[in-house]
Amino acid sequence: MTETTIIESTVLKRGRCFYVGLTRQRLTLLAGIALLTFMCFIADLSIGQAHYTPREVLAALWNPDAPLAVRVILWDIRLPVALTALVVGASLSVAGVKMQTVLGNPLASPFTLGLSAAASFGAALGLILGVSILPASAVAFAVPANAFVVSMIAALVIYRLSQKRGITTEMIVLLGTTLVFTFTALLEALQYIAPDQALSAVVFWMMGSLSRTSWPQLAILSAILLFVSVFFARRAWAFTALRLGDARATSLGVPVGRLRLQGILLGSLLASVCVSFVGTIGFVGLVAPHIARMLVGEDQRFLLPASALCGACMLSAASVLSKTLVEGQAIPIGIVTSLVGVPMFFVLILRSRKL
Predict the structure, then answer these.
(1) Under a CB-based contact definition with an 8 Å cutoff, are residues 127 and 201 in contact?
(2) pLDDT value, residue 137
(3) What is the pLDDT of residues 19-49, one digit of tens each?
(4) Which residues form a coiled coil (predicted)?
(5) Three-state SS string across 72-92, please?
(6) Domain total for the chain?
(7) CATH number of the domain that 219 lies in?
(8) pLDDT one-digit tens code per residue, 279-311
């Protein structure tokens, strides 16, 4: 064996050992985030007007002989809300990380691209003017359906304009900001002419709340999250290559245009469904992906689950805070995520400058 062969073999072994160690580190981090998310989930089930210990919660979930009152409170009231927090948080974070990936802009998110503002305007059309795309028999889903349709229209507008020659990713984010102001102005015009009762409903919807979710809505949210996550996971390598730039990704055989279309539309689908059911919840889709990226890097095989777990943990923790900040009263979760998300985003910005 020549000296050159020995050197190459040594370098290869060191590279393999480094990759194995890095993979184990990332898997350990994922396990740690999952454990923290589970702890927040149990705390969310335990805390409320009636407090229960984690042991009582687990017993009520698995033991049919547990006290009936505890089982009713957990299964019918708290469990749908706690699971919705996990699913919505994961969905918004996955949508945010994919938008940041395909647009190459760290500020891209469902909130900054105007999807949340569009959904709010769509909901206000139903709450104030009674406009609905669904028949009267489906009145329970009328407002979410309006919010979803208007939000997807905004997503299609963003995509169509992004196809114009000379449009950069920075300009797409500026376009999203323009949509935010546009739909906010339209929403304020509707609020100006709204009666008091409808105005109160719109304001409460815009604050974001998990309390109005139900098992059927949770099933819809979970099914869409599962479908989109599987789709993204199967294309993890292509999305990772996209972070190298369009030219390099194309040279590696990645269909950049089609992949960008899929990322924008499916990310918008996730965000639109979430906002249509629970209202406006900001900063989760912006902050959680950055936290995940700092922990596991840009490899989409790890970044996707890490983002989902970070978003789920963040929104579940916000749900706990919403019930503990003011004794005897639950603050709308959209307010909590904004209050917590702003300082977290500042910390991330300052940390990135130091790095």
Answers:
(1) yes
(2) 62
(3) 778 888 899 999 999 999 999 999 999 988 8
(4) none
(5) HHHHHHHHHHHHHHHHHHHHH
(6) 1
(7) 1.10.3470.10
(8) 888 788 888 998 999 899 888 999 999 999 999
